[in-house]
Each structure stands twice: as C-alpha cells, then as structure tokens.
Design brief:
By secondary structure, the chain is an alpha+beta fold. It has one domain: Alpha-Beta Plaits, CATH 3.30.70.3270. The protein is 25% helix and 13% strand. The protein has 6 helices and 6 strands; from the N terminus they run αβαββαββαβαα. A 3-stranded mixed beta sheet has the order 4-1-6. Strands 2-3-5 form a 3-stranded antiparallel beta sheet. A hairpin with a 6-residue loop joins strand 2 and strand 3 (93-101). It starts with 9 loop residues before the first helix and ends in a 9-residue tail after the last helix. It binds iron/sulfur cluster (2 copies). One iron/sulfur cluster is lined by residues 53, 75-77, 79-80, 100, 105-111.
C-alpha cells in the first residue's frame, strides 16, 4: 500500500520552528549558568594564573633584579627596557630604570623563566585597561611587588622549573668519588641553604625565598 505524504504548509513550518525554539529555551533555563558577572564576580586566581609580569621586592624594600638584561634579551615582544646601574649592595648591580610596555607584552612568561635571580614573576594581576597608551608603559615603581604578594607564584614556578635544574653532588668523597671537578653546574639563583653548593646566590637577594624542592 502506497503511503501518501504531503509537504508542510508555511504556517505549519513556522509553528514547528517556534516549538523547537521554545523547547531549547526551556531546556536551557534549567542548565547550570556559565555567565560570570564580571567585575562583581572576579575571575578566580591560582598560582597557575599567568597575569602581568611584576618585579619582586625584598622585605627591606630592595629589588632582586641585578639588571643582567636576560629578560630584555629573551622577550619576544621587545616589551622590556632596562637601564642598568651600579649599587653598593652585595649584588653590585640593579636597574636604575625598568620598563615593561604592557601593550606589547604577550604574557608568555619567558622573562620569569629566564631570570637567574628570581626577580620577575607572572603575577595574578589580570585587569588591564586605560584611556592612554602611555599609562601602559609601566616603570620600576609600578612594577615592584612585595615578595609576600608573589609568594604563591614563586613556589609554583620553583616547583616546575626546578625539574630542569641540576642539584649539587655530595661534597663527601665517599659519596662522590669523582671529586668536585665532576660536580654538575648549579643554576645561579636557585634558592638554597646548602653551604656545599657552589655558585651560591646572594643571600642578600634570596634570603626570603622558600627552600628549594628537589626535582
Ligand atoms: S611575559 Fe613575555 S612578552 Fe611579556 S615581558 Fe615577559 S618575556 Fe616579554
Ligand atoms: S633577568 Fe631577572 S635579574 Fe636579569 S634583568 Fe631581568 S629581572 Fe633583572
């Protein structure tokens, strides 16, 4: 027996579309809301948050940066400009001026990764707006943040970067018969308290860092 069919009229098609749309609306009403009412509901931060780079400031108000220029060199966006200078402090050099052009910065984190003195970190500061371009070129004073504010990120970055850092061999000849000549190089800037470790970083600049975790 042949089944007879007929195509829907224009009105029937409109009604069916409306019913479909209402069905979707009805289902969505009971789903979990994914809209965040920013800025009343700020974006959650964690140590993994890679916000704007900031310079670490010791508790005595001094900077950790020794103006070595590595971060300036490695920055792919040419966002960093450093004017180095000498200092009477143990570290001998510190930046007279340190600028980051946040309009150029792509938040890649290379500066944090390359810094040998743990002086620059990706903070959890995400907000970034203003009416002029000039106010987004941050100077040293605008970049400095107390270590206490960067603590979580410092510990997090230590935990990931220390995987690639080599630790010193024991100074005890019984445990290290090859002698000190065979010791692997120790990454400068790794915070530690072990006096047998060569190339110990300045206690002046690193005294407030957490103890190194072994990889
Ligand atoms: S986060 Fe990347 S782009 Fe931004 S200043 Fe550091 S190295 Fe440059
Ligand atoms: S790499 Fe670190 S110590 Fe060197 S200039 Fe940059 S912030 Fe300063």
């Amino acid at each position: 027996m042949a089944i007879q069919t007929r195509s829907l009229s224009w009105m029937e098609r409109v009604y069916l579309s409306l019913l479909k749309g209402l069905g979707i609306t009805f289902r969505t009403m009971f789903r979990k809301h994914i809209v965040r009412k920013y800025p009343e509901e700020p974006i959650p931060r964690s140590p993994i948050t890679r916000g704007q780079p900031r310079l670490a400031q010791n508790e005595d108000g001094t900077t950790r940066c020794v103006s070595c220029g590595l971060c300036e060199f490695v920055c792919p966006a040419y966002a960093i400009t450093i004017t180095g200078g000498e200092t009477e402090r143990f570290i001998e050099r510190e930046p007279k001026e340190f600028q980051i052009d946040m309009l150029r910065c792509i938040l890649c984190g290379f500066c944090e990764e390359v810094c040998p003195k743990e002086a620059i970190f990706m903070s959890d500061e995400l907000e970034f707006a203003g009416p002029t371009r000039a106010e987004h070129v941050l100077d040293k004073q605008a970049l400095l943040r107390p270590i206490s504010k960067l603590r979580q990120r410092i510990e997090f970055s230590n935990s990931i970067y220390n995987r690639w850092r080599r630790t010193a061999l024991p100074a005890d000849p019984a445990k290290n018969p090859a002698g000190p000549a065979a010791e692997p190089p120790v990454a400068i800037g790794v915070p530690h308290t072990d006096p047998t470790v060569r190339n110990a970083p300045s206690q002046d600049s690193n005294k407030n860092l957490p103890t190194r975790r072994e990889p």
